[in-house]
Structure prediction request, 344 residues.
Amino acid sequence: MASFDLTELPKSDPTPLLRYRDGIYAADFLACAILHLDLFNWLTSASASLEEICEHCQIHERPADVLMTLACANGLVEKEGDRFSATELCREHLGHDSPWALESYYASLGDRPVVKEVLAVLRTGKPGNWESEMAEADWHESMESAEFARMFTAAMDCRGVFLGQRLATKLDLAGRSRVLDIGGGSGIYACCLVAANEGLGATVFEKSPVEGIAESEISRREMSDRIKVLEGDMFEDAYPDGHDVHLLSNVLHDWDLAEVEILLRKSHQSLPCGGLVVAHETFLNEEKTGPRAAAEYSTVLVTITQGRCYGVAEIREMMERVGFADVQQFETGGDRSAIMAFKP
Prediction:
């Protein structure tokens, strides 16, 4: 597709279309919990902590966290402190002894291949294969293949046009000089920010083979004079100097908590005083009980990556722990938002 003006916004909102794709695993998680774990029937008789749920169901904490957020967002359980208890909806329609029980309605889903894949993720905590015949490994390993990297980066790029434009309209970068787009994929987010801010430059920091894709896409958008591409591993290599904004767009949710902290800590160490870090993606609320769209998207992430959706409080606490201050959140579009913070 030919390049076009990235400051030209669509007249319609594609969020409903994004939600169908983002929530594709949600029904399989619920079916797995109902049929293979008997989770909700068990909760009708007692409340439980996440640790107790993991022990009772013999499941791993990371996907269990995602499952319980999904249950909260759908009104099946309530969370008080660190304990989950069944709601009336759960007791009446997922309890075995209820005349309105719906377990049999779900029974035919139990042998679906995706439900079995979800069960394996819940049991092991390890991501499954990417949802494509092209991939024989999880997403992180598959991205080392040039063919898979092109397919995946193209998918994220087309979504990123809308999401990047919405971020650019909400993020105030007045007075900023250069953005480091860490793990920036095709560079679409850097392109949108630069297009919306006269005088702003950017660098996309990406591994091979994605860095070559980014160079091609940035050239196609005729922005190579303002946006450069630097090959590097965001975990292993030092971040380049000369950037007063660090962008992590749809990056943190691919990794577990330890890796998220590494990325934020490296950003803090590299930014100059007064520098800005921006994490942009789908976040759960403070209590991690919703919203539903974020809870559903988290089931995709936990299945194919090493991460999940994080709550606003989780990211804020981590940013403050590594040294950032004045943490703020604002909505952007497509069920996404940004959490930004400053280096004092």
Remarks:
- The beta strands are 48-49, 77-80, 83-86, 178-182, 201-206, 227-231, 245-249, 276-281, 325-331, 337-342.
